[in-house]
Amino acid sequence: MTDSDYMIKTQNLVKKFGKNIVAVDDVSFEIGRGEVVGYLGPNGAGKTTTIKILTNLLKPTSGRACINGWDVNNEPKEALNDVGSLIGVPGVYDYLTPDEFLTYFGKVHKMPKQKIKRRITEVLDMVKLSKWRHSKIGSFSTGMERRLAIGKAIFHEPNILILDEPVLGLDPEGIKEIRELIKSFQEKDITVFLSSHLLDEVSKVCDSVIFLYDGKIIEQSSVEKIDEIMKEYRLIDIEFLNPLPRSGLEKLNGIEMIDKVQKVSENKVKIIKSDGDPTLTSMILDEIIDRGFKVVSYSPKRSDLEDFYVSLIEKKEGDAR
Description:
By secondary structure, this protein is α/β, with parallel strands linked by helices. It contains eleven helices and 14 strands. The longest helix has 16 residues, at 172-187. It is elongated and about 75 Å long.
């Protein structure tokens, strides 16, 4: 397949700062039309650097980034013509109203006057800011500003959205509203590439995810495939009556059915097992009691996306040793 067969494509992307800092290290991925893809990792993993390369705010040290078949850094006007973006903390104009703010950006995109008026109504309705159309942006909450910034990103009706931490700084209600907004983009066949460190939240809106760690991609997979793995009860939270000495942890680690024991507090641990079989979960409890442990609570639970990511990092670090 050629570059034009994908909405977004990177190939062996590298970005270095100075001689010793490699922010993005040989990153390659492909995103098709209408896909919603999460770009996941902790702060400092290289997510924002990748997005800045994709939007021509940074030049790569080597490799290529293409959008709609155009090389972003060699042909930025053509590549970014159909892209809406939200990067970092958006600049807002406190003295403007949403109506004035969006009118200005409509003119930047050379949209006809009637279309600008129509889109202001449509977009403010989508981001639930219609009531504040003529209010000063300076009076807005963080969540309202974030929604307005996303409204600006979609104002010119792009087919591709690149969003860097779109729910950053939002309360649970604000996060839910942005989640529903992104789901509505899926229905319009808009391609969405979004970065986040909120792994569980991303799993609710994305078709697939790319896990980034220390500038490198460590896994790419569909959310559906990961869900199948996470459905199994592979984690068990246990609270004991008394604090656990080191010898107690060693005894737990000695149980053959347990892969790993993580100490959470003086009398709480998390058990990790590779097999989600509920019979095995019951057998582990029997074995723990047989070894003389006094159990207050025993709570098997499904893994979440964060657990999955942590296991990838642990495997990566283990392979490096």
